[in-house]
Amino acid sequence: MFEYIKLKNFKSFENTEFNLLDKKNEPKKLILLYGENGIGKSNLASAFFMLSETLRTMDVRDIMQSILSQDPERLNNEDFSRFLKEQYKDIETLIKENKTVGSTDPMRLEFGFRINGKSGKYILETNDSQIIHEHLEFILIKNKGLYFDITHEKQTISSKIFKEKNAYLELKNACKKFWGKHSLLAIIMHESDDKADQYIADQISDNFKAIITFLSRISCKIKFGSRQERGFIGLPRELFANLEKGNIPEDKEETLDRNADMLTQLFKLTYKDIEKAYYHKDKENDRIKYKLMLSKRIAGKIQPIDFSLESTGTQSLVQQLPFMLVVAMGSVSVIDEFDTGIHDLLVKSLVTSLLECISGQLIMTTHNTLLMESVVPKECIYVIDEIKNGEKEINCITHYDPKIHENTNIRNQYMLGKYHGIPEKMNIDFRKLIKLLKKPN
After folding, report:
1. Segments in 71-205 forming alpha helices (H)
2. Are strands 361-365 and 30-34 parallel, antiparallel or unpaired?
3. What is the helix (H) or strand (E) element at residue 134, kind and residue range?
4. How far is CA 160 from the centre of its chain?
5. CA 15 to CA 7: how far, in whole Å?
6. How many Cα neighbours within 13 Å face the side chain of 47?
7. Do the strands 30-34 and 381-386 form a parallel or antiparallel pair, or are they unpaired?
8. Residues contacting 401, CB < 8 A, separation 6+
9. Residue 330: left (phi > 0), alpha (psi -120 to 50), or beta?
10. Which of 337, 400, 352 minimizes the C-alpha distance to 34?
11. SS3 sequence, 383-441?
12. What is residue 290's three-state secondary structure?
């Protein structure tokens, strides 16, 4: 789980720390993040998404090389090029999307994490086009130590992260060749995932494998304007990332059916008119193309309904479900605007139910203040606020009131401005706006 995150020159954050530890210095399992519109909640969530994306850049390189060697003309197709840019991003693109506009100083992300009760730290620093510093600390063998600290001037990599010297030397050579355009973690994860050569994967130390497993299982659902992006790097094999539709190998059909059974159970608990969830399947060439269907009671009769015709809220619930399930399976999930399209009371029920099952960590942004009146501990509620000159600070509400009485209505106190992070009251004269529209040139 994450203990903290520090950001410098990242989107709207010039220099901000987000502390996720409780009074006993244990990482909190649930974090609800509030704040007025445009304050930076999505930007904060994007930092976790960027971390996940930086781990995939070597895969992007392979994809581009494959296309160039097999069908270079596809890159001239506008739709295909747009799809590639949205789904697969290199370091330079990630930097352009995330570095503070107009900043000439480096962008720096620092993540404090805890795995198996032991703390570690990962730092990634960039200029305007590439990585300029990367640093990782964690338990090497018995004690905390330096895994690597790399700049363009100096490369320090511990030989203890590998079982044999040859693997260590191979990594150092790969680092000299690729580092800067790719992080060392991306290089190592790419090499260890290479099915044609399992040597590197077999040589990684147990503690280093724990770090890679932790980072590779971060799930992010981030909203950028009107489009949403998902950051799945490593889902459990029992769960599909897209429960609505997709294309899978034929030998995954049994897993698909179990996902349908799981959805049936969920819908029966949340909707009175849904009898069953199932998948329409088209099989061809050892593949299954599937789409979600519902058996739904309409005007007293059970009718088959294509899930794509369901309400925005119901679709949002299914899209967010994998991100909720992974935290009950021990992973970290970051969900931006968790309450989008879902009824306030259903959101409250979902979070309350999930709270009892979390074995990983859930970080979510929300505007649903009803959650403040639920069983969610006050220590889990955070607010982003702008203090001066555009600077942002992120505090737990206990920062403003360390001794909140158990009978205090936190929601009312928040709405009154006690914990900051609420929109200013305004009175909009819509007649004046209309006059401006009708004003002659």
Report:
1. 78-87, 91-98, 165-178, 184-193, 199-203
2. parallel
3. strand 131-139
4. 30
5. 6
6. 31
7. parallel
8. 413, 418, 419
9. left
10. 337
11. EEEECCCCCEEEEEHHHCCCCCCCCCCHHHHHHCCCCCCCCCCCCCCHHHHHHHHHCCC
12. strand
Q: What is the pLDDT of residues 306-356, one digit of tens each?
A: 999 998 889 988 988 989 999 999 999 999 988 888 888 888 999 999 998
Q: Hey, which residues does 362 pair with through a beta bridge?
A: 30, 333
| Separation between Cα atoms, residue 175 and residue 61, nearest integer Å | 15
CB 258 within 8 A of CB 246: no
Neighbouring C-beta atoms of residue 406, cutoff 10 Å:
5
Q: What is the pLDDT of residues 216-263, one digit of tens each?
A: 889 988 876 655 565 665 667 778 878 999 999 999 999 999 999 999
SS3 (DSSP) at 149: strand
Residue 233 neighbours by CB under 8 Å, 6+ apart: 52, 55, 56, 215, 216, 217, 218, 219
The answer to whether 3 and 21 have CB atoms below 8 angstroms apart is yes
Sequence letter at residue 230: R
Q: Could you tell me if 346 and 388 are in contact, meaning their C-beta atoms sit under 8 angstroms apart?
A: no
**Tokens read off for 38:** 């445009």
Residue 119's DSSP bridge partners are 114
